[in-house]
Amino acid sequence: ARTLARLDRARLRRSLSRRERGDFMRLNTDYFIRSLCFTGIYIGYTLIAATFGDLLLACSSILMQLLMLFSYFTDGFAYAGEALTGRFVGAGDRPLLRRSVRAVFVWSMAIAVGFMGLYSLIGVPILRLLSSDAAVVAECRHFLPWLLVMPPLGCAAFTWDGIFMGATVSRPIRNTMFWAMVAFLGVWFLGALVLSPTGRGALNLLLAAYFAHLLIRTVGLSLDYPKYILIFA
Q: Which of 150, 171, 142 is nearest to 65 (CA)?
């Protein structure tokens, strides 16, 4: 009862109004669609890789583990970006919003560069930690260059997600992820139709499709940032 007595009743009524409830539902619907597209990409990656045979399937799985590894590190900066963006957008402080976004990206890109260096210097020993099969390790070595170009895009994509979520701007996240899924499927199916790749060529095409999805997410949200977030500050 004491807790209820301390509540700002006017603010509580506003938060439960039809408009606020509608905004809440739209926000969560956008995030749900984004999650469906995100999950669809990773399910598609696995299902497609499963058609390559046991050796390349194992390679694709190990490569995805290494691609996701750096995302766990950059997630911390994405969460920081989410919190800081929410704070400064709410306060209408554009200078601090810009500074916080810049700082978050500097640290996120530092993580990306660090992992690029790690994969270039000790990529093969890391592969041996993930698989004791010499044939799998030898095959994975052919795809290590992908691990040198994807970290910057991956870090940027995850960081932008955190920034947009902090501002509770969900439509660009939803739309960009949808088009990223379209890019992933389009690159794969169009490439498979035109090139009919097999063996390593097929896995390279699949990795190119994954790269395309990261590129769309990063470029799309970078272009949306001034229009959808800076406008609030």
A: 150
Q: Which residue has the tokens 């009743």?
A: 9
Average the pLDDT over 198-207 and give the result. 96
**Alpha helices (H) along the chain:** 2-6, 9-15, 18-49, 54-91, 94-130, 134-140, 146-166, 171-195, 200-228
Measured distance between the N- and C-terminal CA atoms of the chain, rounded to whole angstroms: 37
Q: What is the mean pLDDT of the chain?
A: 91
Residue 11 pLDDT? 60
16 lies in some domain: no
196 burial class (0-12, 13-18, 19+ CB within 10 angstroms)? exposed
- Please count the structural domains in the chain: 1
Residue 18 lies in a domain: no
What domain range is 63 assigned to? Answer: 30-232
